[in-house]
Design goal:
Blueprint lengths: L35 H32 L27 H14 L4 H20 L24 H12 L6 H26 L11 H10 L31
Helix pairs in contact: 1-2, 1-5, 2-3, 2-5, 3-5
The structure holds heme C (2 copies).
Length: about 250
């Protein structure tokens, strides 16, 4: 289908402007406590229908369509299928994390700086937890395979999948790998609901620290450092040298 015309599939027909009352409300959308265990199972169940990003978002927010109703009933959730396998199969950002980050911003975020900062802090905490934790730590009620755990060392689909393939001695396009990612969606959905619950009670505090190494690297390279020539909180050593190996040109 590469190169296929988009005409036909997406005829752009002008829609009448919705009345103001029909427009979805501004963020954050209303929240009612979600059952974390059910969210995890729902994320697993939806994985095979729409991929990792859709599954995780749906696992977290699906219950709100019933408990809150509108505006959740209006959300075009299938658009989140774009995030499958690190966005359209490119293995960049893990789709489970992408779906969770979208749900966090929808439920806890907003354009006001304090809302945005809260959602970003929750998202960063989730990403760092994912990077450092032996996952998946969720097991569905019925599963296709037994799944071994691994540490991704990265929020990227590429590293997460590859490190798991090494640990499991399995192929990256195997049904076992798909099942592992389905379990992982459950882990990420459950963790996200726990963060949302803490935030709803006004008690969210970051729980996972960046690795000491990433903090050290950042102290010379990240925001307000002497060089300020990079940014981010991904673990540096996954792609560069580490404190234990060499800093090629630098005499520390
Ligand atoms: C004490 C400050 C300091 C710390 C800590 C530090 N760097 Fe650097 N880094 C520098 C400086 C200064 C340069 C430029 C050196 C040069 O060009 O000769 C540099 C260069 C680099 C470069 C580009 C040049 C190269 O050597 O490849 C990379 C990549 C890099 N650092 C990554 C890291 C990582 C990853 C860490 C943590 C493991 C780290 N740095 C820790 C100061 C630091
Ligand atoms: C996902 C892989 C990845 C991670 C994680 C990563 N980097 Fe990089 N980094 C790169 C790539 C790729 C480049 C571009 C290198 C090039 O084109 O030569 C780069 C470039 C850099 C440069 C400039 C290098 C130069 O030659 O001047 C610095 C400094 C740097 N990274 C520091 C860091 C630090 C500090 C961290 C951790 C906070 C980090 N990186 C995490 C992949 C990564």
């Amino acid at each position: 289908m590469v190169g296929a015309s988009l005409a036909g599939a997406t005829q752009v027909v002008a829609q009448p402007a919705p009345a103001a009352a029909q427009s979805p409300p501004e963020l954050p959308w209303p929240y009612k406590p979600i059952d974390a265990a059910k969210a995890a199972q729902a994320a697993y169940d939806h994985y095979y229908a729409g991929g990792c990003m859709f599954a995780t978002f749906e696992g977290i927010t699906g219950e709100l369509r019933q408990s809150v109703g509108y505006p959740y009933t209006s959300f075009p959730r299938y658009m989140l299928m774009y995030g499958e396998a690190g966005v359209a199969g490119t293995a960049t950002l893990c789709g489970a994390l992408n779906g969770a980050a979208a749900a966090i911003f929808l439920i806890a975020g907003g354009i006001r700086p304090e809302r945005k900062e809260l959602a970003f802090a929750m998202t960063r905490d989730l990403f760092t937890w994912y990077e450092q934790t032996d996952l998946p730590d969720f097991e569905p009620e019925v599963s296709l395979f037994d799944i071994v755990k691994s540490v991704s060392g990265s929020p990227l689909c590429h590293a997460s999948v590859s490190n798991w393939c090494k640990a499991a001695n399995a192929k990256s396009y195997s049904p076992e790998r798909a099942e592992r990612c389905a379990w992982l969606c459950g882990s990420v959905a459950r963790r996200t609901v726990q963060l949302l619950d803490a935030a709803a009670k006004g008690g969210f505090k970051p729980t996972v620290a960046l690795s000491a190494e990433t903090q050290t690297c950042g102290s010379c390279h990240d925001h307000k450092s002497a060089r300020e020539d990079t940014r981010g909180s991904m673990d540096c050593g996954g792609c560069h040298f580490t404190n234990q190996t060499t800093h090629s040109k630098l005499k520390l």
